[in-house]
Amino acid sequence: MTAQGLISASGADLDIHSGPAAVAPLYVSQPLLPDQTALNSYIEKIWASKYVTNHGPFSLELEDRLAALLHVPTAKLFNNATIGLLVALKLFELPPGSEVITTPMTFAATAHSIAWNNLRPVFVDIKEDDLTIDPEAVEMAISPRTSAILAVHVYGCICDHGALQRLAHLHGLKLIYDAAHAFGAYWNGCPVASLGHASVFSFHATKLFNTLEGGLVTTNRPEDRERIYLLRNFGIKNEEEVVSVGINGKMNELQAAIGLLNLDIFEGEREKRKGLRQRYRQVLGGLDGVLLQEVAEHITQSEQYLLVRIDQEKSRLNRDEIKKKLAEKQIFARKYFYPICTDYEPFRNMPIISKRARPYAQVAKHQVLCLPFHSGVTEAHLDLIAAVFQAC
């Protein structure tokens, strides 16, 4: 497949032969948006029913469809993924002050959700091949105070679940996945949503499947449904009973309507991104020091991000200079993730436990660059991006 098959999120054909006026501005992500006429039909139903939130019919329908799509018995929606992470950690009643092992190569919400739960994040190093959490470093970090592992399927790369599962079982730890980048992905034929004790997905507008804002918590245990329901709804069991402490994590009906419509079109967008990934390999694959993200044979990718790493020891290229030059052409790449969590004020100078003298996360953070990756990317964009890489 070539990029000539790409269409915009609105469904309009793209002119891949357009000149410079057609290539600006371009962002690293572009929200997948459903047809407005179809959305208006849902809005009319919401307005007629006056049922806009509090576990309305659209949110319940979306939960059922997501559970079926992701092959899990428990799939509970949230207003955003950060609240989902908070609840996923709270679900297991981890001892206050205990340690949760995680990666520094992730969005701030991962570490923040640990601290908000009165738990202590312990950062460990990442693997060089795919930048996911390194099981060997996890094993080094386990102590009598460890209660859980919060791993991240970063850039759509899936963690070494087999190794992490063995460690969790051996040491009696909960294994939770931040799967914000991994919606619809598979590991060794198993849906990512079914891995570990719980997984949390982001449905933010930047994600392939989105509800503008939103999140999802999945588990393999049907009995978790009621507990998660109470945690996201103030602990309210019925009109007269509040049986536990909870927060407000409910998804509203407008978000759910977007989700129901996007469920019908996100696979088409993912197919286009698969073709775009191949085009990127063709235009950037031969450059010294430019490492494109590999997709392992046992992984079905979510196609969330297009990651390149620029190794300045092997190349004359400079990551920051490339980003600057792209921006001058109105093409906006992002340095996901730089800085890393241990560079942030709340976690600054916390150690990164590693088998290396210098943690690889400290190297990778200066190399990573996510390029525009969605159906709005045209051949004209790819020509400009290739020219910048070749000129820098």
Q: Can you walk through the features of this model?
A:
With 392 residues, this protein is α/β, with parallel strands linked by helices. Helices cover 34% and strands 17% of the residues. It has twelve helices and 18 strands. Strands 2-10-9-6-5-3-4-17 form an eight-stranded mixed β-sheet, with helices on both faces. Strands 8-7-14 form a three-stranded antiparallel β-sheet, with no helix packed on it. The chain has a three-stranded antiparallel β-sheet with strand order 13-15-18, covered by helices on one side. α2 packs parallel to α8 (253-263). The protein is globular, with a radius of gyration of 21 Å. The two termini are 29 Å apart. 46% of the residues are buried. Residues 1-23 have low confidence and may be disordered.
